[in-house]
Amino acid sequence: MRNLLKVSCLASALAFAGTQILDTKVTAAIPMHTASDGQQSPAAPWNALADDFLDNVYLKFSPTGATALGLHQYDNLLENYSRASVDQQIAALHQYEKRVASFDAKQLSET
Predict the structure, then answer these.
(1) For 55-99, how does the pLDDT look when each residue is reduced to its tens digit (9 = 90+)?
(2) How far apart are CA 103 and CA 100, in angstroms?
């Protein structure tokens, strides 16, 4: 479920910033564990990027959405729609757009 949330949030936020999602097909079935031999999963860099995005952009700028997801540390917060905050959010989204665009999607499996 968290994988689907990651992909959905990342795609939604980048679309909100006026960007286009890459033509590369990325599925929500991204393994979150290490391989049985103890090595890091090939999807680990993507998972780290998605976690970083959720923590530092999506949840930070959408606290009511975070509360709706059941993250109660955001219960007492509301979105800040000041010009400065919106500019910060746009800058953060552009930063993640570049990081997603530079990510090698061939590292991910289709399942």
Answers:
(1) 999 999 999 999 999 999 999 999 999 999 999 999 999 999 999
(2) 5
Residue 43 corresponds to which amino acid?
A: A
Q: What span, in angstroms and rounded, lies between the C-alpha atoms of 80 and 63? A: 9
Q: Is 7 exposed, middle or buried (0-12, 13-18, 19+ CB in 10 A)?
A: middle
Is 6:50 a contact under the CB 8 Å cutoff? yes
pLDDT of residue 36: 58
Give me 101's structure tokens: 């665009």
- Calculate Rg over the CA atoms of the chain: 15
